[in-house]
């Protein structure tokens, strides 16, 4: 009912396997096809897998890479236990260092703004969950506040993904309090069958439906059943 307002950080919260990564890929490809620029922070999925999975739905990111889609790899170093340095500016070497993470985002932003004239920059983080395992909670809250200030000042839209039920309730509540809106995806058992539901709440500066909306993951992506 009008889209996500510019200048927003939106929490994509959901059950594991509810389709959050599909949601992010679909969102990004739509933004890129409209001529917008995008930044992707990949923490829990490798770059090749993210791009390959999107192809299964017909979303080809390859023509956009390094043109108007810039991926920061925060996955490789974390999984391989590599040294905390890299000669590749597209690699985040230590996700526990949230200052390095926000600076990496700013560096890519400056690179885009100094060489391009983007109508808008959007971004995704997939996902916050591993960062919680390795970083002090207060540092993550500070990172989200810094990201929100960045998004507000530059009229950007950021989607940050997080698994529900992993962190303690007060931690999840704090993250919800910081962001500008929430999209929640749930898997609910009904009549011995898992059903998928999505809802939007706390979304500032836009109208939206408050009820749970059923959805399916089809060959062409997420389809709301409205």
Provide an overview of this structure:
The protein is α/β, with parallel strands linked by helices and 226 residues long. The protein has one domain (8-224): 3-Layer(aba) Sandwich (Rossmann fold), CATH 3.40.50.300. Helix content is 35%, strand content 27%. The protein has helices spanning 20-33, 47-55, 76-80, 98-115, 129-134, 137-154, 169-178, and strands spanning 8-14, 37-42, 69-73, 121-126, 157-163, 181-190, 193-201, 213-218, 221-224. It has a 9-stranded mixed sheet with strand order 3-2-4-5-1-6-7-8-9, with helices on both faces. It is globular and about 50 Å long.
SSE layout and pairings?
Blueprint: E1 8-14, H1 20-33, E2 37-42, H2 47-55, E3 69-73, H3 76-80, H4 98-115, E4 121-126, H5 129-134, H6 137-154, E5 157-163, H7 169-178, E6 181-190, E7 193-201, E8 213-218, E9 221-224
Summarize the structure.
The chain contains 7 helices and 9 strands, in the order βαβαβααβααβαββββ. The protein has 226 residues and is of the alpha/beta class.
List keywords for this structure.
single chain; 226 residues; alpha/beta; Rossmann fold; 9-stranded mixed sheet; 7 helices; globular
Number of domains: 1
List segments where confidence is low: pLDDT < 50 over at least 5 consecutive residues: none
Instruction: Please state the CA-atom Rg, rounded to the nearest Å.
Output: 17 Å
Overall outline? globular
Look at the structure and give the mean pLDDT: 91
Structural category is: alpha/beta
Number of strands: 9
CATH class equals Alpha Beta
Helix-strand topology string: EHEHEHHEHHEHEEEE
Counted by DSSP, the helix tally is 7
């Amino acid at each position: 009912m009008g889209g996500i307002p510019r200048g927003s950080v939106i929490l994509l919260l959901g059950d594991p396997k509810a389709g959050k990564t599909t949601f992010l890929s679909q969102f990004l490809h739509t933004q890129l096809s409209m001529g917008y620029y995008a930044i992707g922070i990949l923490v829990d999925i490798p770059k090749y897998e993210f791009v390959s999975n999107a192809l299964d739905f017909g979303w080809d990111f390859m023509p956009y890479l390094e043109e108007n889609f810039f991926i920061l790899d925060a996955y490789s170093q974390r999984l391989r236990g590599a040294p905390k340095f890299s000669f590749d500016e597209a690699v985040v070497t230590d996700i526990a260092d949230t200052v390095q993470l926000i600076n990496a985002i700013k560096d890519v932003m400056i690179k885009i703004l100094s060489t391009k004239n983007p109508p808008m920059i959007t971004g995704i983080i997939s996902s916050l969950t591993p960062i919680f395992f390795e970083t002090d909670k207060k540092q993550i809250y500070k990172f989200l506040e810094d990201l929100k200030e960045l998004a507000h000042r530059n009229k950007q839209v950021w989607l940050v993904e997080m698994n529900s039920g992993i962190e303690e309730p007060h931690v999840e509540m704090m993250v919800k309090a910081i962001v500008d809106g929430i999209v929640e995806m749930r898997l609910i058992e009904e009549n011995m069958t898992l059903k998928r539901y999505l809802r939007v709440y706390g979304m500032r500066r836009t109208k939206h439906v408050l009820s749970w909306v059923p959805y399916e993951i089809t060959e062409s992506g997420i389809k709301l059943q409205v």
